[in-house]
Design goal:
single chain, 84 residues, alpha+beta, GMP Synthetase, Chain A, domain 3, 4 helices, 3 strands
């Protein structure tokens, strides 16, 4: 796992009560897309969290997006979130 993915994982673990966090870099699957930027990531984020599961799904996703707001502006092009 590269440094940026580790950074994102640590940030989530530190700020959201979670049982497990799995981050998958799917950037390679998007290389042929029109607006592909090799400096930005396409990530799949799977969070097992009783805390997030206690919220409405939209609110839980907003919580994750709020936490990663700066990264979404600079380093993340696409973020798929799955809460278990």
């Amino acid at each position: 796992m590269n440094d940026f993915l580790k950074y994102v994982e640590k940030k989530i673990i530190k700020n959201i009560k979670s049982e497990s966090v799995l981050i998958t870099d799917n950037s390679a699957l998007h290389k042929k897309h029109k607006f592909f930027d090799s400096k930005k990531y396409h990530l799949k984020l799977e969070i097992e969290s009783n805390y997030l599961n206690s919220m409405l799904p939209v609110k839980a996703h907003r919580e994750v997006m709020r936490l990663l707001k700066e990264e979404l502006k600079t380093k993340i092009h696409a973020l798929e979130i799955k809460i278990k």
